[in-house]
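Input structure tokens:
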């Protein structure tokens, strides 16, 4: 029996690479549902190639175009955000890959957890915004959450065979992004074109900007707490410009395990699909004849304040990570539209953290309200 996979965000960077994995192992996996937010042309192309059971376009305005383009195929076509949240509960789905960008991934992920679908989690904002709530749901419904982020997949792989051995420290590696060596003066004038050129990874625009500002690493710190049950002081970030060591785990006996590989997201995607098995893959191999240098340095939170703000949000807990995420989504969009400077993004995020009402034990409704209020405030501050 093939594993039937629903890909939320199939036209994005993770989604397209997941389809490559499915194509390479078509005897094991089937793209059962494909969804996109806006990219209807790419979704049509994917649907014609992979012939899923159903497709969903979140943007209702693109529904008719999608429906007409696939009229000659027996594919169910749906439109709207509600359809996206409903499709994940289809009884035939075995696994849901959440590869959507941002806060929009939260509700469909929660629905998939309630429907007891294994979650391959690539949407880090789900755990950033509502980690406690999502973890409680996953425990209540006995739903496994398998990390797809390269760093968390690395930690997950390091923990294989370590049941009962307490983690002393999780060490997340960061490339440092395109501005690792820039001074504050230089950072004040960087452009979106410069920020979109990541030295090691080929990713979508939002995560590439987050990587340049180190907010991406801040989010990964928050995510690590919920995935691996560690405290903020047990999570360390180390800058590793080569992006060969994807992350490490230190145990109580002082031993450190690391997972290495070329920067290729297909590996963590495939591992989440196949876990606990490893499958033969055509991916390029790491060659130590050419990879002769692995270096490490400490992150600078004076130049990259977002990392410090994320730690602060994690320490405070409650709805603070939700505030930081909503503010960040607004400022990144503004930066991509030339409405705010690179350093100005952190200023707006910090002000939102100070001014939006703090809730210590938020409900789902509190998260929705916090997200909405923070976006309004962030837009006013820009």
């Amino acid at each position: 029996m093939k594993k039937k996979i629903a890909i939320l965000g199939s036209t994005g960077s993770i989604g397209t690479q997941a389809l490559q994995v499915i194509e390479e192992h078509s005897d094991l996996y089937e793209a059962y549902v494909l969804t996109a937010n806006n990219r209807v042309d790419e979704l049509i192309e994917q649907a014609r190639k992979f012939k899923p059971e159903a497709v969903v376009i979140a943007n209702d305005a693109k529904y008719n175009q999608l429906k007409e383009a696939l009229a000659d195929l027996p594919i169910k076509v749906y439109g709207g955000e509600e359809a996206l949240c409903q499709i994940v509960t289809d009884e035939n789905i075995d696994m849901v890959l959440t590869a959507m960008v941002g806060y929009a991934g939260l509700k469909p992920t929660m629905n998939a957890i309630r429907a007891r679908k294994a979650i391959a989690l690539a949407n880090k904002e789900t755990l950033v915004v509502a980690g406690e709530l999502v973890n409680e749901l996953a425990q209540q419904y006995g739903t496994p959450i398998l990390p797809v982020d390269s760093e968390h997949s690395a930690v997950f792989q390091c923990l294989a065979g370590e049941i009962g051995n307490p983690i002393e420290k999780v060490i997340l590696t960061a490339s440092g992004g395109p501005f690792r060596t820039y001074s504050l003066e230089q950072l004040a004038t960087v452009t979106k074109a410069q920020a979109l050129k990541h030295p090691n990874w080929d990713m979508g625009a939002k995560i590439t900007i987050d990587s340049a500002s180190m907010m991406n690493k801040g989010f990964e710190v928050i995510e690590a707490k919920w995935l691996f049950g560690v405290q903020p002081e047990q999570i360390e970030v180390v800058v590793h410009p080569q992006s060969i060591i994807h992350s490490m785990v230190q145990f109580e006996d002082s031993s450190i395990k690391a997972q290495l590989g070329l920067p290729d997201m297909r590996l963590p995607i495939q591992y989440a699909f196949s876990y606990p098995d490893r499958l033969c893959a055509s991916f390029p191999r790491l060659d130590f004849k050419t990879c002769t240098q692995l270096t490490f340095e400490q992150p600078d939170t004076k130049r990259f304040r977002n990392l410090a703000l994320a730690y602060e949000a994690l320490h405070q807990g409650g709805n603070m990570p939700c505030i930081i995420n909503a503010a960040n989504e607004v400022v990144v969009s503004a930066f991509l539209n030339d409405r705010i400077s690179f350093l100005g993004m952190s200023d707006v995020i910090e002000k939102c953290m100070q001014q939006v009402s703090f809730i210590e034990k938020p409900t789902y409704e509190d998260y929705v309200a916090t997200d909405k209020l923070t976006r309004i405030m962030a837009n006013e501050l820009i």
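The CA atoms of residues 11 and 98 lie 12 Å apart. The longest strand covers residues 29-36.
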